[in-house]
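Bumping my old thread because nobody answered last time. Still need a sequence for this structure:
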């Protein structure tokens, strides 16, 4: 028999994260390669501790008792660490709202349900980058 779960997709820049919530004891696992690792081991560098807190911000807003109610599994791909963390944050917020629509009233004022649409602008032909042009020469 399969367990009931709630899921949502979060995206940011080129990153995409699928978040699955199921009843449990508070484990947060991220798929890294072929295995699942704890989220603390996924964001390993010292400077990425702030990113880790940022990605779990919806639980901070709702309280630790909500965090201990769920087991979370996350599939994240593409992009860099910051984009992945923000994709996880959006997916987690959406999944929590799918579980309990009353959470929307708590989460929404913090801007956690908005998708940040900013993406890298494409490079145009004849330019060095998206907007930087070659140096102009009078002669």
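Sorry it took so long. Here it is:
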């Amino acid at each position: 028999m399969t367990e009931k779960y709630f899921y949502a997709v979060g995206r940011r820049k080129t990153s995409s994260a699928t978040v699955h919530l199921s009843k449990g004891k508070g484990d947060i696992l991220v798929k890294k390669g072929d295995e699942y690792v704890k989220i603390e081991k996924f964001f390993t560098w010292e400077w990425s501790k702030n990113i880790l807190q940022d990605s779990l911000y919806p639980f901070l807003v709702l309280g630790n008792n909500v965090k201990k109610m769920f087991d979370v599994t996350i599939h994240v791909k593409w992009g860099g660490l910051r984009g992945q963390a923000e994709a996880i944050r959006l997916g987690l917020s959406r999944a929590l709202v799918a579980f309990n629509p009353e959470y929307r009233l708590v989460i929404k004022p913090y801007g956690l349900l908005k998708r940040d649409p900013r993406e890298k602008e494409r490079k145009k032909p004849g330019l060095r980058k998206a907007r930087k042009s070659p140096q102009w020469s009078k002669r």
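Strands lie at 5-12, 15-23, 28-32, 35-38, 70-77. Let me know if any region looks off to you.
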